[in-house]
Every structure is written in structure tokens, then in C-alpha cells.
Amino acid sequence: MTASSFSLPPELQNALPPGEPGAKPPPKAASLPTLRKRVLDKGDEYLIEALLPEPFEVRSPATRAWLEAAMDAADTRLLGLMIARFREQAYTGRDEPAEALVHWLVLQHGLDTAFDALLHAARWRRERIGHKPLRQDAPPDDGAHSFWGQPASSLWQFRGHWMEADAATRAACIERLRALDPQLPLAARARFAIALPEWRPLARQLLDQATPEQLERCGPWLRWAAGLPLAEVAGDGARLLDQPSLLALLLREHGEALLPLLLDLGARQRSVAVAWTLAAFDTPEATEALARMTAADAACAKALGWVAGERPERCFLALAKALEDGGLPKAGAARLVPQLKTLAGMLGERLPAVLADPPWARRAADAPPPLVLAGLPVLDVPPEEDWGDEVRQDWIDRDTPYVYRQPMEAERAIGERLREWTPERVAALHTQPPQELERFIADWQRVHDDAAPDRRQYGAFIAVQAAWFLPPATGLAFWNAVGSGKEAPRAGGFVARFGSAALPGLLQALTNDGDEYFVARFIGATQLAPFMAQALARRPTRRAHARQWLVRFASHAAAGLLPAALGPEGEARQQARAALRAMAALEQAEALRAIARRHDDPAVATAVDALLAEDPLRDFPSRIHARSKLPTFWQPAGWRKPRLRDDGLALPDEALQPLGLMLSFAADLPQGYASLDAVRAACEPQSLADFAWDVCESWEAAGAGAPGNWALRALGLVGTDDTARRLGALVRRWSAPGAGGTATRIGWVLEALARLGSDVALMQLDAIARKNRIATARHAAAEKLAQAAAERGLSGDELEDRLAPDLGLDERGSLLLDFGPRRFHVGFDEALVPFVRESVEGRPGARLATAPRPRASDDAERAAAAAERFKALKQDAATVAAQQPLRLERAMATGRGWPVGDFRRFIAEHPLMRHLAERLVWGVADGGRDARHVTLLRAAFRVSAEGEWVDADETPQALDDGAAARIVVAHPLQLSAAQIAAFAQQFADYELIQPFEQLHRAVHAPREDERALTALARWSGRIARPGPLWALESRGWLRGRGGGGAYDHAWRALPGGRTLALRFGPGLYNAGAGEDQTLEVLHLGHPFGELDPIVFSEAVRDIDALGAR
pTM of whole model > 0.70? Predict the structure, then answer.
């Protein structure tokens, strides 16, 4: 805690010396009549006795007239005597008439007149306490009786006007004080040294001159004015007990360094001023000390009441501890109990109900035992398929490796496995009786079962490939029988090709714990329902697929799950019931009821209604109960606590245990836990996320074991965008060599990011999918992104458009950093690296790579917030900087385009992407091709800084958002030489650097003798390093696996089911490593003269970039 972090309690705020920041300002001109009346009303016989030349009748009109004339004449000597006389009458408290007179003088006659009056007042003193006239022109060696503990309140109030005055006026006053100073009593000199900042240098001299008796009361103030350390100002603290103004100043200047002294004083003395100062500290020690002071002195109760209102949870715990520890007077303890009860009720009302009264801590309401309908049949619902042609073809292209794309190669590989089955015999299977196919399958299975474990996976790989290239009927039967065995690789492409006819093999693959959920979600069959229910309950990485399937095939799901959901107790029943409740949450309750009504037994419909009416708050695992314990890493004492949205109240310790239990099991519930939603709604999001992060760090410090991995996965339930960034950093840390971050642990992080689902979380997944060192992490992250795209009904490219964050930039792609008097604008270069420029009188200043250092003249709070904002911006920009230019370059290479409206929204007018859009040439394509088969551009343009679309002549272009044309990144092959030259000149004129080679990009075409070839040997025999071959994936190539699972070819799927593949050998196994490879051929299977010229040019460019020698 620092001094600047305090929020002063009201009593200390009111005690701040006038002129201090936050103190009550002095009266203004509108108060003049009131001030004048207050002065005149205080005229009495003592004032008259001291001032008037002859006796006047007390309170007579003549007396009042004389006083009015004296005030209006501004006779500073006479006014000074009035101030002194008023002060004399109030020597035990505030001299309010004198304060009013000083305020009136400043407002009516000016600061210098009031100051002169105060100088004259300083020369008068009482001869003794009593009703005697004031003694004029007191000697400098004034006695101790007029040496008060702080400046007289009239001078203290004058200080407020002084701090607002201009420097010249103050300097002139100080010169008059300097001339008169030797004539002033020591007490008056001390008062001026304490009140006026310019006169504080005198304080040290006065400390040396004052007697111990004089310093007894004024010593702390003089030491404060002299700027001495806290220990010397405070001494033993005794003189601070009745000095709230000085305590307020010391608290503001020294912060928590003052706390030990206050705790000591509070334990020894009774002091309301000390109690209010303790109230400023948000610490257990200070609040408990305040509670004990209140028990000892009822006068301190107001300060404790203020803490109870500001920090009820802190006050509640302090009261409870003070009463529990004992040692309080009986009456004092009784004084604390009502406050404790009030706070307990208030805290209970503010807490979410699930934390104040967890459902697992009480017995469920009496209810009839669950209905069991054993033997319920699975109703017939015909199989269905639901995937578009593009999605289906995408899975076929994605999951069909290149190596055995020719039937003869597949048949030859089978012959190597089953020597008696020659290629000719395999090729004739589809013409033979069924018994021949059965014999072939049996022989294959026998050889596979007898093979060594390390050869079974290779055999399963061959089986999947062979099944693809055998005649369709033979291949389908073969795959259904053996291609989906336990060691089989995933076969999404095969299921995509044959659909529901491949259901037997798909079910076998899932039974063998396969990972085919990603493609099973497109097949509707009742037999798949139990697998989807199991995925919801036990396979976090496949829950999104299972939820999609429940919605897409609700009737199949209901028919397949009802028998288990209403069957005997057990895991199958629990999983089925959870899946049906998830269906209802996904708005599929009516489909479930419709299937229930089809059953002959009406009890089925009744049981379904009861299932759907179950209290969602009781949807927690049976293992959770009132005495459930959390793991040993659960040590919340030192963690940041969640705070309620409404009033910032931190959750008390008693509420953290149920919150921890919720996080522990909600991470395993596919549909989440309803009560956790209530907690999220009640708590301030970042505080809840910070608490969950502390839980995760404690788990990691305890070894990051699997049993407590919910501590990590729960971040997906309560995290924020900041959590997503930290999870991305965690993956990078765990992925470093020797960091011990296993693929399993990283998988838990990916699950959390996917469950967060925000744009920032998906951005982190995208970065992991592209750049992570661990291949399994990249692939898993890519699958998470594919799931997210499917859930949103988007293609992968469309999801990428939406993953580009706006980073909080304004519509022009900029950000203002406000340092108070200084302001800076954020811009971005061609690599999306942010920089700042100072705005000087509205004009851009010098460019800086980092946020500027704060200056003393800056607003400290704004400068700190701006620096933190720029730091977060740089982190987010670094995450996406490499991705966005690369995907635009890939779009240029593949011809990917955007509808006009999408281009405007996601590229040209996007706050971040517009910085890249302004540096590229774009084209309007409507599908036509020229004689070279290159896609024609109807127009080419760039995006100006003002957002206009201008052509090579800088003429604005207009396109309707509903236009049928698509916007593409123009490839040099689509532009004329004149267009290239014109756009290049424009970029040079505006000093714009392109994010990648576009206008001056090298282009390649097949030589005349290569146009009829189906395989190119340009690079045959050249040696390539493994690193660039692994990196081909970032250029849109996929890794192909050959014999033994080696990466020995890179391939790209082309429109029309064609494939372009680069072969090399002997093959790579460990991602990022391996021996040098010898390049073989670039294989197309069709004449290269028929290939899109842009695709050919980009493929050659990628291969040349391998640097093969």
C-alpha cells in the first residue's frame, strides 16, 4: 500500500489543512454578507472594552455602526486587534469570528490587506487568561501559554486563500513578514512557519530556539514543517492523539509506514483521531485494532461504522477475530456484537445464493425415487447425413494422404503384406463371390494380429489407404471390417466419401477409443448416441462436436439415449441423462418429447418431463457433498479474492470453498453448471479471473498433476481476455525445450482457450496452431479452431477473418495515449508493429518505438494507464503480427476472395487490418479467366489512408456491398506492367512499404517442354535442409506420410479433387528436426499446362525458397 492509494475517511478529509488537495475550499464572494453578519454578531463588551475610545452601550445601534465603520475602513491595525480579541475568546477551540473576519477581509479588501491584519494580530497577546484587555505589542520572548499545538484557526483558514493566490502577491506578503519577523513572539513565528510553505525554512531555526515546554505542544507541527523524518515528527506519538490535521497529512505523505505507530497508540491510548486514521488502512491488523479501540471507547464507534460500510467483509472478519481472541471489556464486547450480526446478515444477502447456501450442503427435497424403465427399446430412426458438398470435399482432401493415390500402388502394398494375394487377385475381388472377400479380410486380420506391435500401426495405415483405392464396394467392406481397427489412423476422409454406409467401421473406430467424432458429427444414427453422450462427459476435446451432433440429429440422439437414460443406475444412465439435459439447453426439448411420445408406455413421456424439470442447481456429481475436500494445493489465504460487481465487496473466506468445489466439477460438465453462471454474473469479471489464475498457479507449483487439472481447465469457465493472453504465454513457456510441458498439459490449456471462445482466445489458438514447436499442440489447436468455425457456421478462412482483433483501436486504426498535458497517437508499420507519435499542437511529432517515459508534469494516473495500455497493445499485436500478413499472402497465392461487404468489414475498414489493406493492391474478380487461365480482374485498386478505393490513376472506385464480384489480393500475373509501375509509384510517394512481396514478386511458368508433363523433375537430386521442409506447412502445404509414417512428401489440395505433391526422401519423423532430404519430383497427375498459372508460380516459389542445393 502506498500513500497515494488511500481514500481518506470523512473525518480526516475534513481535517485536512486548507489549501491541501482535497480540503474544503475557502468561501467565495457570495459568502460576504454571511461572513460580515457573523463578525458583527460577535461584538461584545470585551471587544468594546479593548477597542472603543469611550464607553458604549453593549449591543446598541451605535456600537454596531462603529464596528461596521471599522471593518469598511480596512484599518489593518484595528482589524488585527479584532482578530486577536476574537481569538482570545476562543482560546480553547476554533476562533470562528476571527475565521469569518479573515475570509471577509480577503474577499472584500484582498489577500494583502488580510495578511497585514494577521501580522498586527500576531503582535497582540493576552496578558493572562481572564477578562482583561489585550496587551499591545507583546515582546518577542512570548510565554509558553500562547504557544498552541497548531496554527490559530484564523491563520489556518487564511492558508486556503494563500494557496490560491498568485506568486507575486505571495512574494510581496513574505517580504513584509520578513521585515516584521524579529518583532513577533516565538509562538506567532512558529504559526507562520507551519502555515505558509514559503516560511518553512524558519522551522528548523525555531526548533533550536524553542524551550522544551514550548515544544511540548507545537513540536510535531514544527518538525513536520521542517521536513524531518516521520520518527522525529511523531516522537512517542503522545502529541498526535488530538491532532487529526497532522495525522491526515502524515497519512497522505507516509502511507503504511505510519501504521506501526498507530497500532501502538491504539493499544495504549484512547483517541478518536487515531481511530479515524486507522480506518484508512485496508489491512486486518488496522481493522482489528480499530475494533478493540471501539470496545474500549464508544467514541471510536463512528470510525468503525465507516469501515463497516466501506469494507464490510474486512470489518466482519476483524470483529469476529477480536471477539474470538477475547480480552475485551464486557461492555465493549457487547458493543461489538450487534455490528457483527448486522454485517453477517448484509454479507449473506450480497453473496450469490449458491455460495451462501450451496445445494450440496443440504439434503435434496423429498422426491420419489427416479423412474427406471428397464429394457426400453431403441426406436428406429433412419440414418441421415448432413454436410454440404464443400465441407465433405474438404474432409476428403484433408484426410486422404497422397502416397497410395494410384490403385496399383495400393494393390502392390497389400501384396507385400499378404504374399498370396497378388495385385491381380486383389483387383478382381469385386468380381468374385462374397466368400472370396471374406477370405481376404480374414487373411488380413490374421496377419495383422500376428504382427509385432510396431508393425501393426503400419499395417493399419496400409489398410485405410488400400480401402480407399480398392473398387468402392470392396474397399467399403474391407474398411468396415479391418480399416477401423485399434491401430488405424483417423479416417475422416473415408467416412466423408462413403457416409452412413461406413457406419459399421465408424462405430468400431469409436469403440476402439478412436477420434472420429470430428467426422461422426455429420452422420445421424441412433448407434452413435451413446458415444456422443460419453464424449460430453469424458472427452472435453470432443464436446463441441458432440453438442453439434445433438442439435443436428436431435431425433437420433433422443431415440438412442432414452433407453439408457431411463435404465438402471450406472455410468451409462448418468451420461445419457446429462446429454438429454444438454439437448434441452440447446433448444431440442421438443424433439426429445416427440420421441418419448412414440413409445407405447406413457410412463416414458412422464419420465422425460420429470427429467427436464429437474433443478439445474442439483446437477452436480454425486461425489460432491457437504464434507467434500479440495486438493492440498487449495490454499486461498494469500490469493486475490473475487469481488462483487455492485459494491466491490470481496468474497469472504467462507464463500471460497463452495466456489472451489464448483470449479472442480463444472470443468467436467459439458453444459457447465448453472450456479457458476450466477457467480459470474455477480462477480467483477477480472477479479474472478485473477482468483482462478491464482488457483491454477498453486496447482502448477504443486506439480501440475492430472488429478487437479480442473484448476487449469476451469480458467475456460471464468477467464477473461487477459486470461487468454496468459494462457497463450503459458503454452509458449511449456513448449520450450526442457520445460516439461507435455502434449497432455498443453491440451488442457487448449481446452480452456476453446471454452473461453472469445476472439482473443481464438487468436491465441490460431497462434499456437501456426507456430508452436510441438506438432501435436499445433494440430490440436487447429482442431479447436475448426470446431469453433463449425459452431459458428463458418469456414476456416471466414473464422480467420473474424480472428483479427481490433485491439481497441478507433475506426481509423489509431489509439490515443493520454498522459494529461501530453498526448500520443499510436500507428502501425507494414509488419503491424505499433509505434507512437506525440501530438504537438495537433501535428504529429517524432516517431517512438515505445511509450514515452512519464514526466513530472504528466498526470501520473493517466500516464500509468496509458503506458499499461500500450504494453498490452504490443503484446496482442505481437501475437497477430505474423499471422495477418501471412494469411493475406496465402489468399493471394490461392485466389481466395471476399464478398464486397465482407472485404469492407474485415479488411478495408477493420481498425487493425486497414494498416495492411493500405499497403496492398486489390482486385475485383467476377470469375472470368484469360487465355492463360489466369483469373481476370475487372478492376484493380488500393485503399487510401482516407478509406477510399482508388485505381492506378488515383481515381476513386465504388462497389455496392451486394455486388456479385469478389475482392482478391491482386497477384502480379493479374496486373499489367503499367498497373504495377503506377501502384509502385503511389506506394513510394506515400512512403508505404508492402507487408510482403506483391508488385515485385517473382513469377514462374512451366517451360514449353513441361506443360504436358504430370511430374516435374526440376529439383530432383537437390538436397534440402529439414527446417524449411517442416516450414512448408506455414505456406499452406500439408504433411504427407509414407511407409512407416515418415513425412516424405508435402501436398496441397487443389479444386476438382486434384493434388499437388512434392516428394523427398528418406523422410522426416521428429518435427523441426531430422536429416537432410533429397528432393524427388513435383507430382500433379495431370498435365502442368492445365494448372492455374498462379498456383504453379506460387508452388515453384515455395520450392525455390527451400534453398535446396
Answer: no
